């Protein structure tokens, strides 16, 4: 049974770059994710996209929606659905704090990055965020351009 071995990367860190452009982060939390076996295998192979993902409360549970985890290549008929809702594992204290803030006007919960911790568990960093206005986005881009220009001048 000579099959080819899959290249599994040890350092998994998937970032949501769009979120930092669209939102101003107020506070960050690290949460566990309830996954199936084939989902964790796809995450270890870095076949994940947080591009359109967002979090919401269903009942008293925090759910991440629209996070795309590609089906595992060798999964067979027991493979997972790519854009299924996945439960986030936070303490009750953190959940109530987030729920209160989200019910206030203008706050949302956005996944910022997905990573594998030292023990091999998938963790997702979520941020309590407020949407940026157009002028805030322009100021951020201007500051980035200025810092890029300054680094070119030094060398």
Automatic annotation (TrEMBL):
<dbReference type="GO" id="GO:0070930">
    <property type="term" value="P:trans-translation-dependent protein tagging"/>
</dbReference>
<dbReference type="InterPro" id="IPR000037">
    <property type="entry name" value="SsrA-bd_prot"/>
</dbReference>
<protein>
    <recommendedName>
        <fullName>SsrA-binding protein</fullName>
    </recommendedName>
</protein>
<dbReference type="InterPro" id="IPR020081">
    <property type="entry name" value="SsrA-bd_prot_CS"/>
</dbReference>
<keyword id="KW-0694">RNA-binding</keyword>
<comment type="similarity">
    <text>Belongs to the SmpB family.</text>
</comment>
<dbReference type="Pfam" id="PF01668">
    <property type="entry name" value="SmpB"/>
</dbReference>
<dbReference type="GO" id="GO:0070929">
    <property type="term" value="P:trans-translation"/>
</dbReference>
<comment type="function">
    <text>Required for rescue of stalled ribosomes mediated by trans-translation. Binds to transfer-messenger RNA (tmRNA), required for stable association of tmRNA with ribosomes. tmRNA and SmpB together mimic tRNA shape, replacing the anticodon stem-loop with SmpB. tmRNA is encoded by the ssrA gene; the 2 termini fold to resemble tRNA(Ala) and it encodes a 'tag peptide', a short internal open reading frame. During trans-translation Ala-aminoacylated tmRNA acts like a tRNA, entering the A-site of stalled ribosomes, displacing the stalled mRNA.</text>
</comment>
<dbReference type="GO" id="GO:0003723">
    <property type="term" value="F:RNA binding"/>
</dbReference>
<dbReference type="InterPro" id="IPR023620">
    <property type="entry name" value="SmpB"/>
</dbReference>
<dbReference type="GO" id="GO:0005829">
    <property type="term" value="C:cytosol"/>
</dbReference>
<keyword id="KW-0963">Cytoplasm</keyword>
């Amino acid at each position: 049974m000579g099959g080819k071995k899959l290249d599994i990367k040890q350092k998994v860190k998937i970032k949501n770059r769009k979120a930092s452009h669209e939102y101003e982060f107020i506070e960050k939390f690290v949460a566990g994710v309830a996954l199936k076996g084939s989902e964790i295998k796809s995450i270890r192979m870095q076949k994940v996209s947080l591009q359109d993902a967002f979090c919401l409360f269903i009942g008293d549970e925090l759910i991440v929606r629209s996070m795309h985890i590609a089906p595992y290549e060798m999964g067979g008929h027991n493979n997972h659905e790519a854009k299924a809702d996945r439960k986030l594992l936070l303490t009750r204290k953190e959940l109530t704090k987030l729920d209160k803030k989200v019910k206030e006007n203008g706050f949302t919960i956005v996944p910022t990055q997905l990573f594998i911790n030292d023990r091999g568990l998938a963790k997702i960093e979520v941020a309590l965020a407020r949407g940026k206005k157009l002028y805030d986005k322009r100021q951020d881009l201007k500051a980035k351009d200025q810092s890029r220009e300054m680094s070119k001048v030094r060398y």
